[in-house]
Every structure is written in structure tokens, then in C-alpha cells.
Amino acid sequence: MIAVKLGGAVITHKEHERQFRTRVTRRLARELTAADGPLAIVHGAGSFGHPQAMQYQLHRGWVPGIDQREGIAVTHAVVRDLNLRVMRELRAAGIACTAVPPFPVLNEGYLHHLREVLDLGLTPVTFGDVLIDGQPSIVSGDYLMQLLASRLPVQRVIFVTNVDGIYARPYDPATLIGECTPAELERALVGDSTASDVTAGMAGKVKSIKEMVYSGAEVAVINGNKPGRLRSALCGTVTGTRVVQP
Q1: Out of 67, 149, 240, 243, which could bridge 165 as a Cys pair, Cβ 3.0 to 4.6 Å?
Q2: Residues in the chain with pLDDT values less than 50
Q3: Does this model's pTM top 0.85?
């Protein structure tokens, strides 16, 4: 099985609140049809979730003086709005898919629903969202990818980002890593976002990637703004960074 993460910085304009990149997402949906076998899709929230989560401080639990109940409702509503837009493009491309939100609680029931969808031959689509397990929190798409890789039979993972891959030195295109092991990722950080972000950007992604490779999956990081790169990665040719076991 292949797990694909459509980054929020690719499918939304992160510098403009709630602006969906329809044409880019439509192209990526068409490229996803190149997958040969079961597919699980995760997408980030981008400007449809991070600004709201930051405004209401949902990543900090209950915070006095902030109407976080309103924040929970607003944040979940906007990420569901984004999910519906992504699903519309996937279905238009011919992908039989159904949404599996992590809201309200990330537990075994969530994983059971993912497995049921896959067993039916459908493609599950899940996404970064707000959680309310005793107190509000945020679950990132990167964490969900890590969860899928550790609990489902995922052989390959593809991160579709807004950069060409992982760099040995931030902001230096000349240091793009073509292939590396998890140990080499310790030194590989890149600033892939200039906008507000509640999750940890590429630094958090690197941590998740390491765990996925240790779980037995091969991981690719590619640029979704470059046409054809997702299709090529699905077919086994990675133009970007490929992370493998030593």
C-alpha cells in the first residue's frame, strides 16, 4: 500500500486564509490515478485550519479567557470544507474515495474505520484536524502519516510538499539530498514555510519520516508544484529526496 500526504502548502495558498489551489489539486488528483494498488491519502490543513487553530490557541489545551469551544467548531468546519474540496477533485479524477476524519478522538475506532474503507476497495482520505480528547489539541497530517505507516501495511510513503525535497542546509538548493538514511536526516532541516504554522514544518516532517522508515516504509519527499513528479514517484521514480533503510 502507498500512503500519500498532500501538503497544506501545496493544496492551499498558505499566505491567504481559506484559498484553495483548485488547479494544482486537480492535477495532483489526476496524477494519483497512476497508483497501482491500494492507496491512502492524507492532506494538510494549510490556510483552512492553521490560522484558526492559532487564533484560538487550540494546540495549548484549555486556555482561560479564550472561547475555545467556538474555536473547535470553527476550525473543524473549515478543515471539513477543505476536505470536501479535495474529495471533489479526487472523485472527478475517478478515484473512489471516502473521508475518514480523525475528529473528535484519535483512537482504535479511527484505525478500524480506515481498515474497513480499504477492505471495501475504497481510498480513505484523512486530514489534519482538531481533537477534543478531554481538552482541545491539534493532530497534524504528518502525525497521521506516521500512524498509518506504523499500523497499516504501508510499503511506500510520499510527501507532496512545496519544496524539492530535504536539504542538508536550510534554504540552500545546492544541498538537496537525493537519497539518505534516517541517521542522515538528523542533520537535514529545511524551512519550507514563511507563513504561520501550528505544526512544525519540515523539522517535524523529518522526525515523522525517520519513524516511518524505522517502521519499514520507504519515504519520498517531492515537490507537488512540479507537474508529473507525483505520478513519477508513484511509478517508482523519485525526483526529490528518497529515504531508505541503511
Answers
A1: 240
A2: 190-200
A3: yes
